[in-house]
Amino acid sequence: MKLFLTGITGAVGMELARWIALNTPKARVYALIRAPSPVVLMARWKKLAAKLWPDPLARPPEGQFIPVLGDISRPGLGLSPEDAARLAGEVTHVLHSAANVELDAPLPEARQANVDGTRHVFDVVRTFPRLERAGYVSTLFVAGQRPGRFLETDAVHEAGFVNPYEQSKYEAEHLVRGLMKELPLSIYRLAYLIGRDDGEVARYNSMHSLMRLFYEGHVGAFPGTPESRMDLSSTDYVASALLTLFLGHFEPGRTWHLGNGDGALRLQDFIDTMTEVSAETERRWAQGVFLPPDVVDEDTYTLLRRTLLQTQNPRSHEVIRLGDTMYGHLLAAQVFDTRSVHALIGEQVKPPPPRRLLRDVLRHCVATGWGRNRS
């Protein structure tokens, strides 16, 4: 396998690289990395490799991973003629995981990375005559505000979106589906990723910001019901499941859901777990000064939101801002159907229990000062 991989510097791309190095030692990976020059490219790769494999003895052999200077925001990926020719002559597999994952990025900015960037990647992939298969990394939350059970075959809806990120990924999926007529492509929709199986956090995101505000006692209520689901998972799991499907069960034109499905965390379990673990290190939780957030209906939350926006408390405003990018999924009472993945590879690759994962991630966040005190 000669794989062209985008997004290796992101949380998912890093896990894909680890899995490949461990499980497919004969593979060669061409990893697209943005840099202003070849010298900076190599410096960034060396720094990334040291992070991926802290033990020098555990690092993959020289030449298994080859950094390639490029940028998905540029037509042709900004590849040099030499790199473009080399990729066209050698690549057999492609995984496109690069994306702008900021939930509140302006829609034009999200589209530039996630729609235009995807178009640029597959315009180049079209020039690969040896291509056997390609995968596009998407998100379960292309479901937007569509209520109820969301199937792998569900591709079109008019329910609207909770944030610009998921709208841009929805639009990118439609671009990819159009390409399935000419390229062997599959789509992998991922759950909301909060850390590795052991709780380590490589990339902090909006969920960690919300968890921190909860820990600090600033979250007073969630909209929805106690049964509303939060499909949270680990980067290790989705990388392992994705590559197991991609290499061992590839089906052109297929979409796969990688998450917990019916086993996703209930909102009440999220609140209870956060409260329990917060009390281990924050005395105001242990003493009952901080109280667990209430679960309220949409009208009550709308009134509360309006009231908080009238205050001068910046933390309250931050809670509202984050909620505006996430809470719509709680109100939609969504369940993402993962039954086919669990039936096919569930005995081989199992998602971590979501309550345990949340517990371990929160403990890691607190122990590292929310990323400030990492060694």
Chain oligomer state: single chain
The CATH architecture of the domain at 2-195 and 232-263 and 334-352 comes to 3-Layer(aba) Sandwich
CATH fold-level name of the domain at 2-195 and 232-263 and 334-352 = Rossmann fold
Query: In one word, what is the shape?
Result: globular
Number of extended strands: 15
Flag low-confidence runs: none
- How far the N terminus sits from the C terminus, by CA atoms, comes to 35 Å
What is the highest CATH level, the class of the domain at 2-195 and 232-263 and 334-352?
A: Alpha Beta
How large a portion of the residues is in β-strands, by DSSP E? 15-25%
* Secondary-structure-derived class: alpha/beta
- Helix content class: 40-55%
- Succession of helices and strands: EHEHEHEHEEHEEHEEEHEEHHEHHHEHH
* Biggest sheet overview: 7 strands, parallel
Organism: Archangium gephyra
Pfam family, one: NAD_binding_4
GO biological process, one term: long-chain fatty-acyl-CoA metabolic process
Protein name: Long-chain acyl-CoA synthetase
